[in-house]
User: Fold this.
Amino acid sequence: MRSHAVPRQYTTSKTQPSPRGLAALILPVLILLWLAAPAQAQDDEPLSEADRIQALIDKRVEEEAAKLVDKMDIAIKLDLEWPVEEPSEPIEAIEQRMLRKIAVLVDAKYPNNVEAGYREEAERKYRLRKKGDHVSFIVRGGRGTHIWVHGRLREVNDERVIVDNRWIIKEDISIEDLARLDPTLSIRMKKRYVHGQLRRYQMKRETYSEKLKSAALPKAYALGGYVPRDRSSANSEDIEDWVSAYSVFDTAYQADMSSLKAKIRPTLEEEVYTANSFVYVEEEGRWISKKEANSLRGKLKRLLMK
Assistant:
């Protein structure tokens, strides 16, 4: 039987890499595997150390940024009085307090108990004449237009009014004069008079109230620590047009702080990490602790010694 073995002189052999070359090949892979390993497979201490350093960095960044941002300068640019403080009470509370004061002033100038007086006026204005009373009015239509009628009232029926011996159709008499002669119309005109007077009186109350509101509310909001949302709202009585001066200031302050912290963080991160013996791993784009780095070197050393 023929042997299929390859003759010794034709066998091939591989050149073994040097330890230095093997380290160069394995190091990047080992770093990636180490950093990607589950948290359970790593010691808890490096993670807590990293958290401690990160908290330290955050604190340093916050402190350094706070030193550089000028709060007073922000307030001046926003045209706010310094120091800018939070309002002592909600704007809704200011509004309600001022409305109560305004209501007292309105009631003092225009009391609510006027209806009885208007009813008395209506009774005098449309006092119903009785049979036998002397009456006087002008005929507005029909024959004898614009003629004064004088005499004693004899009768009022559904269609006519009789004064002495003269019969006048109701349509020829003005509603104002007829309301003093016709009982049903008299009642209706008295009610209409009272309603009209009360409506006009209420309009006076509302006009006066609005005058006080326009003068007092914007001023009260400003004194309470609020500013208009825009220039067009400077005289607005509506609380929706006002916002806390402190919130305006704080928004601008936080924006400046955020921008500045983003600028100074890289420098401070490097400073703090380096001071705490951390090293930066390019492959991962992050810092690792000295203990992690030593552990990684130890693993690599043991791997190379095998």
Q: What stands out?
A: The chain is about 55% helix and 10% strand. The first strand starts at residue 134 and ends at 139.
